[in-house]
Amino acid sequence: MTDDRLPLAELMAKTGDGDFLRTIAESVLQIIMEADVDGLVGAGRHERSGDRTTWRNGYRDRSLDTRLGTLNLKIPKLRTGAYFPGFLEPRKTVEKALVAVIQEAWIAGVSTRRVDELVQAMGMTGISKSSVSKLCKDIDERVHAFLKRPLAGDWPYLWLDATYLKVREGGRIVSVAAIIAVAVNTEGKREIVGLHIGPSEAEPFWSSFLKDLARRGLTGVKLVISDAHEGLKAAITRVMGATWQRCRVHFMRNALAYVPKGQNTVVAAAIRQVFLQPDHAAATQVWRQVADQLRARWPKLGVCMDDAEHDVLAYMTFPEQHRVKLHSTNPLERLNKEVKRRADVVGIFPNEDSIIRLVGAVLLEQNDEYQLQHRYMQIEGMAALATPMIEEAQPLQITPKAA
């Protein structure tokens, strides 16, 4: 059997003081793994035994981050069966998805030099199509079950945002939008409720996406927050029957494009005075005053503010407790950054299925984290959500009769 004695003198001779503890830790863990494998095999290395059940089949590299630094371990492989040490965590779903995407690109012969280097660095030379198919099937089943799950209850708030990725299509490299949908239910809990790939400017795309959410049970939507994508506003009205909130951050960028860079700070400060108002009526009044003041010097900016007034201030008609999270798509920014960080490793995706596989895995793990967090929005505001909407609707019904 394997000699369990740790050759301390030999280790001290080979390593310096700084690396001594790290080398000791690597050796101890390696001895533990070798002992575990001896038990599974039924024999030690190079030992003949009638109790043997399988044979060793080399090693695979795996790193482990510790307080002593990164430990470089060699996990024994078996010819039949599998072994994984209990002190290591299996790779997360998103890491498996990333590996699967790179493998798929490698097999398809469309990998760039960067992907080639990544594949070699991860020790994935000589990949078989059957192993890739098995890995992809496991990930796809979990991701599709998550993205197609039924939704129960009412979801008053819905955020939509697009992240643009590159994919090979018909021999060309094209840019597609990965639309991510996050919603908050009446309990104040948020969830990732959808992912869709396609051209973000096309109205049929938005209608198809929103109809799919509705079929899965996304009901009771009162406000949809997004950037000003062409065709989205009409799709929201037709499918959801909800109010649209134009992202305030994106609007500011669009508005400042009409102003010389030297005046951006002054103009931005003037427009922000609107958002400091306590209610919708006061915000509307200040908005029009600021628009008239800026119109004299920048007519196009005045027109822009006239057109965007109702869409940018829509959130002001909702409960005050919720407004800080309703005026923009900022709640999705961290999620988008994580998606881009993972996608940048791949660079160019071989097909749309690989995008859904990787991005869906990222969303699946993030949604699990959401479920462990506290309420995203105060539940008291949810109770008062319907009251202002009813009160505002009554004058619109009475006015025609009085006229």
Automatic annotation (TrEMBL):
Pfam families: Transposase_mut. Required for the transposition of the insertion element. This is Mutator family transposase. Belongs to the transposase mutator family. It comes from Sphingobium olei. PANTHER family: TRANSPOSASE FOR INSERTION SEQUENCE ELEMENT IS1081. Keywords: DNA recombination, DNA-binding, Transposable element, Transposition. InterPro entries: Transposase_mutator. It comes from the Bacteria.
